[in-house]
């Protein structure tokens, strides 16, 4: 006997309709403080409890992403939510430490932070669209075990298959690698690859490259090391996941955190030296409120907030409250979180996994080696040429990023030799002659000191400098409630 089940019909556009009725309120305040601009975002979440929590997690990450992509320096941030509403405040400046006075930039921030999920960033001002990769590209995602020359092999295969690389970004950490590449049809640059046979050949060849390396490391499997590898080819999509967040996801799924040697990174075991800049994480339960309190102390660096929130979000935790600040070159972050199901973190295994994931997310972007900036005329096979020259000179690439605005190709490659030593300047000259254009080696800032940029997206990274004596506060619990009470009064 056939059973007939009835359930209420819910229009798919209902949630987006609610978002349009109750959009986020964005306030750009240049009056309260003399040395920074306040970006305040408040929103009421008029949906079911679980949907509200899920949407809150996405909103929170999207807001940090918008500010990060604009190279803004966030010196402090306060976050609060009760599941039905949220209020986020960011203290921001530009890269020179000035307030935000550009009307076009302010308007962009208001639009981007106030955009609904369906609108995304599609309606923002044209002058800022160049910061994002176009959606009209075929997307290649790869993850697996790392080895010297892997990026060179991947780019060589794509060149042979007549793929033009429009943009690419690759990370390596704890013996794993993740890479996202945007490609066009080499015969029709600017257009995605539509031939299904061509797409199949690309996927098969890339799988062969990744799989060959996995077979090469048979001893790792014998030692119980996770060697998951994946290759994914997707069509152009609107509203796709942010590239760097996707890299975090690929690293996490690949298990880079499993190799995290963080047994001595707990807060109570933190090294007593003021020059210790390794990240330290402590997790404590707050049973009275149902929160788990996560404290993170680490050296400040670009995109620190983004990387931390990515890790928390992608592990299905909800941030109810948070306070973040920099003190000198150190950064302190305190999060009051719950798992998505509303429970607290009770199992030690859950705490260890979260600790390892946070440390891996923080350390994964740290740049090892020497940064080489390349700017030259855009042409097919350029990434293959650059990586081939680096490989032939015995250099590995722990991190790389390249984009092609207009007819130019601009890229940053972090390179190091097998021994981790400095690179011979003659090698850079060889690279310049090989690819043409300009090649710039960046080893230290003009002042000769480290130049930390709190939670920002600065494209200049200093590879030198010592840590000075800055004593951070170990807890922000008392501060957060005082600040949130004041902010609640100001926003009413």
UniProtKB/TrEMBL annotation:
PROSITE patterns: ACT. Keywords: Repeat. InterPro entries: ACR1-12, ACT-like_dom_sf, ACT_dom. Transmembrane segments: none annotated. GO terms for molecular function: amino acid binding. The keyword Repeat applies. Residues 139-221, 371-449 form the ACT domain. The keyword Signal does not apply. It holds the Pfam family ACT. Binds amino acids. This is ACT domain-containing protein ACR. It comes from Trapa incisa.
């Amino acid at each position: 006997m056939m059973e007939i089940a009835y359930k209420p019909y819910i229009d798919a556009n209902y949630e987006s309709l609610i978002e349009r009725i109750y959009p986020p309120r964005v306030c750009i305040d240049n009056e309260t403080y003399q040395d920074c601009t306040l970006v305040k975002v408040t929103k009421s979440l008029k949906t079911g409890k679980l949907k509200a929590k899920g949407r809150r997690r996405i909103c929170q990450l999207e807001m940090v992403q918008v500010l990060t992509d604009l190279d803004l320096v966030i010196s402090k941030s306060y976050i609060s939510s009760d599941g039905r509403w949220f209020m986020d405040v960011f203290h921001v400046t530009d890269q020179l430490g000035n307030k935000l006075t550009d009307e076009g930039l302010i308007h962009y921030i208001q639009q981007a932070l106030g955009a609904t999920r369906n609108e995304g960033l599609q309606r923002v001002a044209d002058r800022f669209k160049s910061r994002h990769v176009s959606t009209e590209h075929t997307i290649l995602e790869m993850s697996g075990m790392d080895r010297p020359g892997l990026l060179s092999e991947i780019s060589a295969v794509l060149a042979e298959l007549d793929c033009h690389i429009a943009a690419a970004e690759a990370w390596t950490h704890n013996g794993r690698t993740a890479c996202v590449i945007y490609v066009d049809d080499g015969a029709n640059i600017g257009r995605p690859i539509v031939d299904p046979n061509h797409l199949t050949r690309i996927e098969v060849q890339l799988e062969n490259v990744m799989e060959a390396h996995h077979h090469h490391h048979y001893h790792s499997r014998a030692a119980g090391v996770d060697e998951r590898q994946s290759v994914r080819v997707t069509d152009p999509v609107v509203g796709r996941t942010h590239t760097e967040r996707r890299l975090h996801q690929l690293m996490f799924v690949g298990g880079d955190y499993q190799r995290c040697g963080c047994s001595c990174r707990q807060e109570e075991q933190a090294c007593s030296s003021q020059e210790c800049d390794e990240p330290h994480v402590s997790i404590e339960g707050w049973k009275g409120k149902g929160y788990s309190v996560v404290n993170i102390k680490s050296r400040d660096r670009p995109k620190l907030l983004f990387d931390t929130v990515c890790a928390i979000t992608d592990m299905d935790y909800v941030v109810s409250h948070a306070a973040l600040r920099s003190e000198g070159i150190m950064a302190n972050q305190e999060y009051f979180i719950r798992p998505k199901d509303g429970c607290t973190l009770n199992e030690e295994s859950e705490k260890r996994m979260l600790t390892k994931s946070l440390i891996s997310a923080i350390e994964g972007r740290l740049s090892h080696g020497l940064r080489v900036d390349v700017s030259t005329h855009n042409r097919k096979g350029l990434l293959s040429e650059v990586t081939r020259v680096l490989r032939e000179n015995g250099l590995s690439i722990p991190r790389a990023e390249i984009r092609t605005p207009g007819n130019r190709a601009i890229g940053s490659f972090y390179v190091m030799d097998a021994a981790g030593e400095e690179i011979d300047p003659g090698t850079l000259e060889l690279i310049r002659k090989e690819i043409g254009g300009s090649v710039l080696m960046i080893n230290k800032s003009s002042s000769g000191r480290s130049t930390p940029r709190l939670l920002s997206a600065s494209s200049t990274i200093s590879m030198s400098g010592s840590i000075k004596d800055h004593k951070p506060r170990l807890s922000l619990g008392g501060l957060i409630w005082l600040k949130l009470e004041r902010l609640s009064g100001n926003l009413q």
